[in-house]
Amino acid sequence: MAPSFSIILALLLVVAATDAATIFVINKCPYTVWPGATPLGGGTKLDPGQSTSFKAAAGTQSIRIWGRTGCNFDANGQGSCTTGDCGGVLACKGGGKPPVSLAEITLGSGGASDFYDVSLVDGFNVPMSFGPAGPTGGSCHTIECSADINAQCPSELKVDGACASACLKFNTPQYCCPPPATPETCLPTDYSRFFKKLCPDAYSYAYDDKSSTFTCVSGADYDVIFCP
Q1: Which of 162, 203, 204, 219 is placed for a possible disulfide with 195 were both Cys, Cβ 3.0 to 4.6 Å?
Q2: Topology at the third CATH level for domain 19-226
Q3: How far is CA 14 from each of CA 1, 10, 46, 216, rounded to the nearest angstrom?
């Protein structure tokens, strides 16, 4: 006898449940960081040594996490940040204003692998690492971007508290690779090489996939560490 719809649905839910993930965020910087996360929010102030976590429910497809600096919020959660501001609110409902160091993950489903990266395509504000939390039984990789890029930022890319990418700063096809650009026609520049030299595992420009995208077993949990 064929299984009922309710049994099939229950089995699907069990499979989907394995694809949930918890992302632990730790601040090892000597200054305060306010993490932001889409679509998970982010309404926590992390002083040096503090941590928090975000629970991504089964079915969550993609997540972005970044650090905000120089923030001031009132009792109603209204305010602003020098870097990474997300619409002037403590609990983010949208993405962070670039330039920011950005941890990105697409969660696998049905046994498919997770895909994750650290992106500096729009620039850098806080050193970070991003990788699996604890043993995973596989060869999952922790992405390290621990260099103080702000201290070495070319003068023409410097902004308050951060280092902008050439695309963000100059907004030209050479640096931004808009369609119909391809990996063969849009190549690294001196500016993207600057970011790549300091953070070899991170995305430095739009077509930096081969050396900057990593996979891990579906169902893994992750650590994002500011100033690892």
Answers
A1: 204
A2: Thaumatin (2.60.110)
A3: 22, 6, 34, 20
pLDDT in tens, 73-108: 999 999 999 999 999 999 999 999 999 999 999 998
- Centre a 10 Å sphere on the Cβ of residue 111 and count the other Cβ atoms it contains: 11
Over residues 25-67, the pLDDT tens digits come to: 999 999 999 999 999 887 899 999 999 999 988 788 899 999 9
174-194: average pLDDT:
94
When pLDDT is cut at 50, 70 and 90, the band that residue 4 belongs to is very low
Per-residue HEC secondary structure of the chain comes to: CCCCHHHHHHHHHHHHHCCCEEEEEEECCCCCEEEEEECCECCCCECCCCEEEEEECCCCCEEEEEEEECCEECCCCEEECCECCCCCECCCCCCCCCCCCEEEEECCCCCCCEEEEEECCCEECCCEEEEECCCCCCCCCCEEECCCHHHHCCHHHEECCEEECHHHHHCCHHHHCCCCCCCCCCCCCHHHHHHHHHCCCCECCCCCCCCCCEEECCCCCEEEEECC
- Report the predicted TM-score, pTM, of the whole model to 2 decimal places: 0.89
Furthest C-alpha separation in the chain: 72
